[in-house]
Each structure stands twice: as structure tokens, then as C-alpha cells.
Amino acid sequence: MMDTVNMTGEIQNTMSDEELVAWVLGVDRRIVVLGSMKKRPILKASDIAQETNRSTQNISRALKEFNEKGFITCLNPEKTTWKRYTITSTGKELLEKFDDMFFDPN
């Protein structure tokens, strides 16, 4: 399981679909963040934590994991707290894969 960086500096995930599903579903906090990615263009740990009755630290960790994989990008990386993230094109592909795998009516 390796990640590579494309020409625009975005991390390209080289996991198979099965590995990707296992990675997301392997930790509950990732499922929560994935759901939030579908709902809003800007992600903040405090907002997601409040909406889901989870700790901000728990959600921050998931956001960091998604950021490390290139599914989201930090809009204010210079800050140490109150970070804001937005979904990348790779993240949009991830959402499409999950929609196709789990929510396709056919």
C-alpha cells in the first residue's frame, strides 16, 4: 500500500478498492468524516465533533488521516488549531467509489 504524488502535488492513492474500503471502514471516525465530506465543502473538526457527539480530538485525527492520504487538503496549514479542510479531486473520487459500492440502487 503506497501513495504517490502527481504533477500538481496532490497525493495519488494507489490502494486497491478493497484496501481503500478496509482503510475507511476500519476506523469509526473515518466513516463519520466521510459522511461529512458528502455534506459540506469546508470541514472543521469542531463542527463535525459537535454534530456527531464525538471529541474534537477524535475528529481532528480522522481529518489528519484523510489529509495525509490526499482526500482533503488543509486551507490554513499555518495554524495549529481551528484548521479548515476542503475535499480534493481524489476525495471526490473516493466519495464516488463509496456511492457506487454501497449506495448504487442497481
**Helical proportion, percent range:** 40-55%
Question: Low-confidence runs (pLDDT<50, min 5 residues)?
Answer: 1-8
Mean model confidence by pLDDT: 87
Net shape:
globular
Task: Please write the string of helix (H) and strand (E) elements.
Answer: EEHHEHHEEH
Structural category: alpha+beta
How many distinct helices? 5
In terms of DSSP E residues, the strand content is: 15-25%
> Measured on Cα atoms, how large is the radius of gyration?
14 Å
Which sheet architecture does the biggest sheet show?
Answer: 3 strands, antiparallel
Secondary structure tally: strands: 5
With strands numbered from the N-terminus, the spatial order across the biggest sheet is 3-5-4
Distance between the termini: 30 Å
Architecture blueprint of SSEs:
Elements: E1 3-5, E2 11-13, H1 17-25, H2 28-39, E3 42-44, H3 45-52, H4 56-68, E4 72-74, E5 84-87, H5 89-102
Antiparallel strand pairs: 1-2, 3-5, 4-5
Helix pairs in contact: 2-4, 3-4
